[in-house]
Amino acid sequence: MEDTIKLVGIKDLQAVYKLVRASAEWIKKEYGYTHWEEYYTYEKVEQNFKKGDVYGLYIGNRLLATFSVGYKYPVYYAEEDLAHFEDPKAQAYYLTTLCVSPQHHGKGYAKSLIKHLEKLALEKGVKYIRFDAKGEYTELIEFYKRLDYKIVGELLDEGEIYYLFEKKMI
Q1: Strand 160-168 to 150-157 pairing
Q2: 0.85 cut: is pTM over it?
Q3: Residue 147, Cα to own-chain centre: how many angstroms?
Q4: Parallel, antiparallel, or unpaired: how do β-strands 62-70 and 92-100 relate?
């Protein structure tokens, strides 16, 4: 069965939240990182639907991966963090909550979602895609680098280093 990536609506909140929580539990079990568990509450995932767009990757009717995107940078970015971007005031997509069901890691779904977002950016004339990743999460950092995302700076959040990533689309 072929995968389908589509914009999802608030009616899919429960399924998206369940997937995000499963990912948070996996990150904690695999790496000992609790940042997703602490940050992505039900209310935070619900806000993703209100502040931007949420996409899902489906096989049949099963949601296997998701991401959220909006034009507004995350609330935890300070002015000095934004200054790291090439053109901080340019229109950009800010990617958050990219996750794949732990049972389906390694199948290329995260890459498919990012490529879908890049296609959307090009279609809509969005100049940049930006996001951050926990500095200790080296596998994830390398994954983003393989997709030609550049580390443009660092931000410090509660004593933890996060790398700021950016890719120029147009």
Answers
A1: antiparallel
A2: yes
A3: 14
A4: antiparallel
- Helix or strand run (H / E) with residue 17: helix 13-31
Give the angle subtended at the CA of 28 by the CAs of 25 and 135, to the nearest 5°: 130
Cα atoms in the 13 Å half-sphere on the side-chain side of 67:
20
Res. 69: pLDDT tops 80:
yes
**Digit-coded pLDDT (tens) for 77-107:** 999 999 999 999 999 999 999 999 999 999 9
For all residues of the chain together, what is the average pLDDT? 96
Q: 52 near 126, Cβ under 8 Å?
A: no
> Cα 93 to the chain's mean position, in Å?
10
For residue 50, the SS3 value is: helix
Q: Does domain 3-168 have CATH number 3.40.630.30?
A: yes
Q: What is the DSSP string of 141-153?
A: HHHHHHTT-EEEE
The strand order across the sheet containing 160-168 reads 3-8, 53-59, 62-70, 92-100, 128-134, 160-168, 150-157
**Average of per-residue pLDDT across 23-33:** 96
**Joined tokens for residue 49:** 């639907």
Place of tokens 């009717």: 61
| H or E segment to which residue 64 belongs | strand 62-70
